[in-house]
Amino acid sequence: MASSLTSAGVVWAFLSFLCAAASCVGFFMPYWLLGSQLEKSVSFGTFRRCSYPVRDESRQMTVMVEQCGRYASFQAIPSAEWRICTVVTGLGCGLLLLVALTALMGCCVSELISRTVGRVAGGIQFLGGTCHIGWAYYCTGGGAAAAMLVCTWLACFSGKKQKQYPY
Predict the structure, then answer these.
(1) How far lies 62's CA from each of 24, 56, 150, in Å?
(2) What integer is the mean pLDDT of 40-69?
(3) What is the pLDDT of residues 84-125, one digit of tens each?
(4) Sign of dihedral through CA atoms 142, 87, 136, 28?
(5) Burial class of residue 5 (count of CB atoms within 10 Å of its CB; 0-12, 13-18, 19+)
(6) What is the pTM of this model?
(7) Do 48 and 31 meet the contact criterion of CB atoms below 8 Å apart?
(8) Which of 27, 129, 127, 35 has the alpha carbon at shortest distance from 85?
(9) Alpha-carbon gap, residue 88 to 110, rounded angstroms
(10) Rounded distance, CA 37 to CA 93, Å?
(11) CA distance 119 to 124
(12) Could you say which DSSP state residue 52 is in?
């Protein structure tokens, strides 16, 4: 199988995939903030939460639901800042995955990634990495930081020189 990537490009493709996977796993995990409430451990992320209080109307008291799940709707996310964080981090993960999967395809398809395409992909990767804030926070941030620093640099050397055709 022909590849459109140099040796540095192959390293970039696999590292990009690992960084995107780490960022996405961190984004989907509800362990961004940990604490306790009503003597139970609680945690939540941008759009998921574990062990959260609910008002039990039949007993007229607040009880802890000891399970993990998503918020009922986008508007149920506690604050506007967390809603913005959910959208921006989700977009960042999407960009990282897009570049990583394109780079992996470049390992198998000839003339898919030129030097220019590699550099543009590195720029997109840098943008995707800057979209992350946020155990899950460190996973997301670590994947994003590696994508921003190492993968962006490697992307500059990923594509082969395009062949010049005489016609």
Answers:
(1) 33, 6, 48
(2) 80
(3) 888 888 888 888 898 889 888 888 887 777 777 777 887 777
(4) negative
(5) buried
(6) 0.69
(7) no
(8) 27
(9) 33
(10) 31
(11) 9
(12) E
